[in-house]
Design goal:
Blueprint lengths: L1 E2 L2 E2 L6 E4 L6 E2 L17 H12 L2 H7 L13 E4 L2 H11 L6 H30 L6 H20 L7 H7 L4 H12 L3 H16 L7 H7 L5 H12 L3 H8 L1
Antiparallel strand pairs: 1-2, 1-4, 3-5
Helix pairs in contact: 1-4, 3-4, 5-6, 6-7, 9-10
């Protein structure tokens, strides 16, 4: 996926957000059939939902459908799917537009998805405001650069990027990048990547046919012992114990 100067690999655990009037290209590199699902939210629909969220009821009554609201510009970035997101998308995909009643259900589900995305965007704005810059435009630019580095973390499936690579992708010096990353995300890049590895480990352990040592190799650990020690430090259980507990 490429949007403007931003390129990212969209794994099965992620989705990508772009804004209107922003062209993008989508390339599929797979020997197996791949399904894509794009959701386009109309301008009038999105502004109506946003107005209902942020404007007081008396103003909505006075202005009605003419209520003016600011346009939301999402950051172009990879976003991690969570359970709520998957539920919303599943409900949307199951909705048929065969009749007017189904049209109503479709619009309600689109509204629910947009409200979810706006709440996620509000969390991103909080992270942006935490960055140490006087001008709002500077904080936005810094967060945009950090987002590119985070997308690189999520997109690198063949190796774990080092600090120099991440800083270079964000066009920042190494230690400036490290300080900004901590302030925006509340953890260091190394800690962030370790959390991702453990999250993936939990998913892989759900399959009892995959040996623990193979999971360790997939996640980039030197051996299964180092993986098991880290997993126990973070979860209180060894991988084999965790697997027995969930299966």
């Amino acid at each position: 996926m490429q949007s403007r100067n931003h390129e990212a690999e969209i794994g099965e655990d992620f989705y990508f957000i772009s804004n209107r009037f922003q062209p993008y290209t989508l390339s599929i590199n797979s020997n197996k059939p791949v399904e894509t699902f794009n959701i386009h939210i109309g301008e009038q629909f999105s502004e109506g939902v946003l107005a209902a969220l942020i404007q007081p009821a008396d103003k909505l009554l006075n202005n009605g459908p003419q209520a003016q609201v600011p346009t939301v510009a999402f950051y172009n970035r990879l976003c991690r799917k969570d359970e709520r997101f998957m539920q919303l998308v599943k409900a949307l995909r199951e909705c048929s537009l065969a009749d007017s009643l189904r049209q109503m259900a479709f619009e309600e589900r689109m509204e629910a998805l947009l409200v979810y995305l706006l709440h996620q965007h509000r969390n991103v704005l909080r992270q942006t405001e935490s960055l140490p810059a006087t001008k709002s435009s500077t904080r936005i630019e810094l967060y945009r650069r950090l987002s590119i580095a985070v997308d690189n973390i999520h997109s690198c499936t063949d190796h774990n990027p080092n600090l120099d690579e991440l800083a270079a992708s964000a066009c920042l010096s190494k230690f400036h990048f490290l300080r900004l990353f901590r302030q925006a995300y509340g953890r260091s890049p190394y800690q962030y990547m370790q959390e991702l590895r453990l999250e993936k480990a939990r998913k892989l352990l759900q399959n009892p046919s995959v040996p623990v040592h193979e999971i360790a190799l997939v996640l980039g650990f030197d051996n299964s012992n180092s993986f098991s020690r880290l997993f126990r430090q973070r979860t209180g259980l060894y991988p084999s114990q965790y697997r027995l507990a969930i299966n």
